[in-house]
Amino acid sequence: MKRLLFLVPFMALIMSAGAQQADYAAQARALVAKMTLEEKASLCSGRDFWSTRPIDRLGIPSIFMTDGPHGLRKGVDAGFTTSVPATCFPTASALASSWNPMLAWQEGKALGEECQANDVQIILGPGVNMKRSPLGGRNFEYFSEDPILAGHMGSALIQGEQSQGIGSSLKHFAGNNQETDRLTMSSEIDERTLNELYLPAFEMAVKEAHPLTVMCAYNKLNGTYCSQNPWLLTDMLRTNWGFTGLVVSDWGAVDDRVAGVKAGLDLEMPGGSDLNTQKIINAVNGGTLNVSTLDSVVASVVAVTLQLHATRKVGATFDAQAHHDLARKIDGECIVLLKNEQHILPLSGNKTIAIIGAFAKVPRYQGGGSSLINATQVSNAFDEISKIEGNKVHILYAPGYTPEGSTTDAMIAEARQVAGHADLVLLFTGLPESYESEGYDRKDINLPGSFNQLIDAVAGVQPNTAVILMNGSAVAMPWIGKVKGVVEGWLGGQASGGALADVVTGRVNPSGKLSETFPVKLEDTPPYPMFPARNGKAQYGEGVFTGYRYYDSKQIAPLFPFGFGLSYTSFAYTGISSNVAEMKDMDSVTVSVNVRNSGAIPGKEVVELYVHEQQGKVVQPEKELKHFSKIDLQPGEEKTVHFTLGYRDFAYFDASVHNWQVNTGNFDILVGGSSGDLPLKQTVHVTATSILYPILNRYSTLNEVVKNPRGQTVHDDLVNVMVVSLLGNPSATETAAAAAARKKTTAMLGSLLGDEPLCKLIDFSKGVFTEEKLQDILKTLNQ
Questions:
Q1: Catalytic residue status for 255
Q2: What are the tens digits of pLDDT across the range 386-396?
Q3: Listed residue (98, 87, 176) closest to 123, CA to CA
């Protein structure tokens, strides 16, 4: 695909890094063989808050890591109250709205340069968790509600960072979707939903970008802490996806360190305590922890340490102004034009412009918590618009509210007066800093009441009003019908003032598309009213129906759909074709789409491709994003975009076989400029030849097939689970006739009794099948 062509030059780099990593792995194993038990155990936790422990006698250095994900946050004092000056780039929700992986790569490269200049070896990010609800307090740090968009943007960012010889830490693995009670909450996610929505972005990033580290989340996943979940950290991450790097805990996420070692958690952070070190030593000496397991964990730590120490660039520097300019360029593609009635934007002609809102001079440009950056400089929209339009228009100003979000009758009256003397109003609002931060979730999706009051007041006297928003996640807009323009500026980083000025003045044609759905009201959102959960278990009852998948299935019209965004020009989708009309599931199909700039100025369009299965065997979303490409078109220019679709584009996750499966049938390939506007359709018939996707699969033996990855078969599991276990797996010596008989028996029993709990057999058999016999079967299955 064209949108991934920029990755080609870096394939040699990736292959070289892979070879080097193998050498470092061998060196690490040799060093581990020389260590004492105490030295091995010591390397399982950090030296202090940010660095690993060295072993001087073996030449093993310490490496330093610190926060990201959209800027470097390296403290300059013990209390971490001050951090080094660094470029604050657009946050993830903004960056994803560019739908441009090349920009993510450029941002990552700049972040890598700043890490090298500050002697940082690992930057903690990016975060690719899904946005289950717009209330998520950390949503500004996450890319999207869709795993395809999040996966590609995260992968590109990682590749950019690691091209500079530093390591990325892909986070928060996994199911970290709320901040409320995040240290103890269990994300209860069924296997299909987990694999279709909450794991694919991680899988894509691991396989495409090869991050050197993955950070496990605070929360539990289906009852087991992520920091000690072997299914998550070993079976899925390492065995299925082939991850070979270092697994690090989120800071303070470790519950049982010995269990974590067994599960595949390599490094506990922060360090500084020997308590868990001694527990590991005691476990080895007591025979409850194998030395070989400990050796494997320590080798991972040492291998990554050696690799990152070798790629240190002593004396490196970075160009702060160049990075600021890059942040402005990137944010220009992140801004989303949501409404533009009567072409109120861009600014034109000799007019009097009223700029209203404290955010115009004191911008909201980043979120709170561990990602808070000490920006090298900060631009504001008022000054930048004045620089661009100062000789063309007369500019008025009124704050309307304080930067904290409060207002008074006098401030609103002043804003009304200023608005009444202008030809057009640019009204800057959004969410104050206290509304969005790591550590807590939002209470609603509304702007502060003072902001809504101000918008109503200004729009009441000035119909030519455009609202510019600064926020990290979706917000409600009860005033949407009263204003002519709406610009979603997100949390655009330190150069957001300049980027917003570029867009509203027309120096940059907006090309951003929403990375998440904007609902009309909170009650329309998929997990409402169960988000955030507060009883220790977050039940993901909406299953695979989250984000646009939910609004489609419930036929709820959102305020703005996923993937939506306007331009100052227009685009026509003129044709679609495929190289084949029929295919087998393990083959591929190439779809070609023609798009023309039908307007009068140059512009960029995001071409979005979704797949709809006409008659699925399981309940599925109406459509799902599978591919996208951003193209640049001159007026009247037409381009052809090619997409290649394969097995996973047509598959769903079948929990009964713990793998991906394609059904034989017709699939509609839908293409357009947003999830709500897909004018092109091409139908392809896919024939299923195999139910299993070709991946390493741990569920291969009799007992493993029946066991749920979260526990053992129990008395109220369904009969078909036992039937599949006992009759669904062939033996090595089974004849064809025996296999046919087994399949026939399996189908018959599954049809008759498949949905009944095992314990019901006692009642149905009238005492022939006893509780004792059931317990004997369960004991056999769970051995």
A1: no
A2: 999 988 889 99
A3: 87
